[in-house]
């Protein structure tokens, strides 16, 4: 049997439609600053996609481009100026930054209230401790997608392949906060196939084309492919759809959720009343209220 599709495009479209009407109903004018450092063509494409989708829901963008030769201090100064600008509600620094720039220092310059991309150390701590704030856009978008389709996480064996600070690492922490039993795998994991065969939920976020082989995927597993490589290739072999119970398509899965989440956060940062219904998280969580799901568990 073929897996059911976790259709990120359609959920993102619903989120954007709700966002558009929430912004139209408000007197507020949300503005997102985008910071693009260097000439990476993929980064230009992604910032362009975010800008166009922002415009489509009534969010203004302020595009700042910085030369590829910039130092960490120069990029930090750009971000600090946006932090101080009362007309900017959210700041997106497009990853990756050129090698000579200390990306962590740049991210951590973003004020908490403007970290709509959820990339600062403080936002990571909030995701890890489940204390609110903006979630990372890709991990947050994935969780919204799983919630939308009422995929339970409580007590399930979840494997995250990848441990990047803006995706794999926070993704695992968010699922841990939802009482999944989380295992991180990465480039030094010796038994990746074995770990994935045992997983009920697989988050493939390694940035390595088709790293996850179709025959590693357990029957009926939930497979989220957060890979995006040229030619519509993900981190999971397409044949996995023949075994999985649920799977995200590439394209049309995680990517659109990332952008819809970023824009939802930007509107919230500006004070727009975006109710949970707007970003689909109001759907009843199938693991909500399960005995033993207290955050005090060890
Ligand atoms: N500061 C950040 N940098 C990066 C992030 C991020 O969330 N914050 N994520 C990725 C790239 N990314 C957004 O920046 C991104 C990548 C892909 C998509 C997307 O919607 N892709 C489409 C396919 C598009 C196409 O092929 O034309 C899809 O999957 O359907 C959105 C966002 C790294 N950097």
UniProtKB/TrEMBL annotation:
A Pfam family that the UniProt record links to this protein: THF_DHG_CYH
Keyword field: Amino-acid biosynthesis, Histidine biosynthesis, Hydrolase, Methionine biosynthesis, Multifunctional enzyme, NADP, One-carbon metabolism, Oxidoreductase, Purine biosynthesis
EC assignment: 1.5.1.5, 3.5.4.9
Catalytic activity annotation: (6R)-5,10-methylene-5,6,7,8-tetrahydrofolate + NADP(+) = (6R)-5,10-methenyltetrahydrofolate + NADPH; (6R)-5,10-methenyltetrahydrofolate + H2O = (6R)-10-formyltetrahydrofolate + H(+)
Segments of this protein annotated with the region Disordered: 274-298
Tetrahydrofolate dehydrogenase/cyclohydrolase catalytic domain ranges (all copies): 6-117
Binding site for NADP(+): 162-164
Protein name: Bifunctional protein FolD
Domain Tetrahydrofolate dehydrogenase/cyclohydrolase NAD(P)-binding positions: 137-270
Summary of subunit composition and partner proteins: Homodimer.
Coiled-coil segments on the chain, per record: none
Biochemical pathway: One-carbon metabolism; tetrahydrofolate interconversion
Record-stated family: Belongs to the tetrahydrofolate dehydrogenase/cyclohydrolase family.
Protein purpose: Catalyzes the oxidation of 5,10-methylenetetrahydrofolate to 5,10-methenyltetrahydrofolate and then the hydrolysis of 5,10-methenyltetrahydrofolate to 10-formyltetrahydrofolate.
Gene: folD
Source species taxonomy: Bacteria, Bacillati, Actinomycetota, Actinomycetes, Mycobacteriales
């Amino acid at each position: 049997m073929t897996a059911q599709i976790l259709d990120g495009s359609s959920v993102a479209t619903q989120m954007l439609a709700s966002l558009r009407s929430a912004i139209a109903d408000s007197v507020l004018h949300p503005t997102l600053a985008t910071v693009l450092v260097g000439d990476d063509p993929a980064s230009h494409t992604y910032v362009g996609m975010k800008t166009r989708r922002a415009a489509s829901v009534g969010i203004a963008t302020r595009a700042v481009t910085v030369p590829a030769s910039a130092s960490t201090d120069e990029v930090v100064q750009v971000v600090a100026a946006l932090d101080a600008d009362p007309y900017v509600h959210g700041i997106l620094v497009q990853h990756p930054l050129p090698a000579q720039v200390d990306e962590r220092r740049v991210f951590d310059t973003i004020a908490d209230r403007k970290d709509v991309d959820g990339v600062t150390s403080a936002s990571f701590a909030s995701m890890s401790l489940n204390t609110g704030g903006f979630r990372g856009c890709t991990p947050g978008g994935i969780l919204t997608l799983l919630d939308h389709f009422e995929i339970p996480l409580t007590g399930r064996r979840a494997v995250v392949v990848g441990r990047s600070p803006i995706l794999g690492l926070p993704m695992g922490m968010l699922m841990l906060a939802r009482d999944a039993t989380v295992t991180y795998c990465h480039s030094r994991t010796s038994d990746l196939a074995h770990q994935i065969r045992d997983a009920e939920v697989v988050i493939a976020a390694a940035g390595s084309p088709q790293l996850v082989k179709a025959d590693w995927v357990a029957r009926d597993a939930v497979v989220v492919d957060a890979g995006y490589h040229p030619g519509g290739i993900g981190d999971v072999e397409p044949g996995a759809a023949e075994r999985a119970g649920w799977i995200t398509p590439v394209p049309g899965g995680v990517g659109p959720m990332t952008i819809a989440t970023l824009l939802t956060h930007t509107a919230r940062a500006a004070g727009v009343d975006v109710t949970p219904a707007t970003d689909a998280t109001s759907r009843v969580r199938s693991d909500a209220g399960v005995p033993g799901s207290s955050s005090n568990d060890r």
